[in-house]
Amino acid sequence: MGQKKLIKFAAIKQYENVLENPQGMPGKWNSFFEKLASGPYPISLDELSVIKNNTSTNQSAIKPLTLELACGRGEYTVGLARLLPAQNFIGLDIKGNRIWKGASIANKEGLPNVAFVRTQIDQITQYFDTNEVAEIWITFPDPQLRLSKAKKRLTHPKFLRLYQQFLQPGGIVHLKTDSPNLYLFTKTVIELYGLTVITATDNLYETAFMQSDNWNQKLAIKTYYEGLNIASSNRIHYIQFKIDQDLPIEKDEILKEMIAEFEVTETHDAKRERGIKANEN
Predict the structure, then answer these.
(1) Which residues face 258 on adjacent strands?
(2) At residue 165, does pLDDT exceed 80?
């Protein structure tokens, strides 16, 4: 492992706003962010209060919680926290050297509503209680273009069933991607399982969409990847939806048959799988 990575790993172990596979956290995140804002430090996770989020009652003390999955350097997590200081945000990723970037920026700017969790996404239900999360953002994830890897796509029903365990009723999922294949896959999942689409566009930065009522400043935040030429040269796809129906596992086989017919679009990720450098035409 490189020296720079070792330095970053050592740094985040000292950061109060970075937790690695934290145990016993369901229901405690509102209390955690209160401690993050005011201390004392170090924060003892065992001493945090469990607050049940009953969405049928008015609990103004509980701030809405949003997750960014596979957050990478955490640009979206930090960007959302800047825009919405009255809400709390958590970025999740397994790459500690990437998390270091977003966590360091949040510390430098004194953002008390930002935290990061280093973990595998398929372990996510260990960390959040029923109704504890208001929204999920999935920004430029690996589209897992090979059919054999379809279950690793973060909008596959396998993952949506996990999110459903802690999303509030009416909770929203956002997907932002440059992969037409992942966008089409997600739309197919939504249609097959009868979920509710709120907004969908295959060209996020088209003038007409940016001037419509569906545009807001949260969509203007850009990740490191989106800032690269390889991303900006492609259309950016965006879809916003609710997981408001059951997801019967019997339909997974139907989905598998449907996506087998998809044409795999030649994106940066497809080229990378074939060993072609990103800057080659």
Answers:
(1) none
(2) yes
In a domain, 278, yes or no: no
Share of residues in the chain with pLDDT > 70 (%) = 88
Tell me how far apart the alpha carbons of residues 65 and 167 are, in angstroms, rounded to a whole number: 10
CATH code of the domain containing 55:
3.40.50.150
| Rounded mean pLDDT, 210-220 | 95
Tell me if 99 is assigned to some domain: yes
Q: Is residue 278 predicted with pLDDT exceeding 50? A: no
- 221 contacts 154 by C-beta, under 8 angstroms: no
Per the domain annotation, does 280 fall within a domain? no
**Band of residue 277 on the pLDDT scale cut at 50, 70, 90:** very low
**pLDDT tens, position by position, 119-132:** 999 999 999 999 99
Rounded Cα distance between 198 and 188, Å, is 15
Residue 206 structure tokens: 């088209």
- How many domains are contained in the chain? 1
First to last CA, the chain: 32
Answer whether 0.85 is exceeded by the pTM: yes
Distance CA 131, CA 161 (A): 14
Question: Out of 46, 122, 129, 142, which one is annotated catalytic?
Answer: 142
**Assigned domain for 279 exists:** no
244 flagged as catalytic: no
CB burial class (10 A; 0-12, 13-18, 19+) of residue 275? Answer: exposed
Q: Encode burial over 42-70: b for 16+ CB neighbours within 10 A, e otherwise.
A: ebeeeebeebebeeeeeeeebbbbbbbbb
Q: How distant, in Å, are the alpha carbons of 33, 35, 122, 127, 134 from that of 49? A: 11, 10, 25, 14, 19
Instruction: Read off the pLDDT band of 242 (50, 70, 90).
Output: very high
Identify the domain containing residue 167 by its residue range. 3-273
**Encoded tokens for 124:** 């996510």
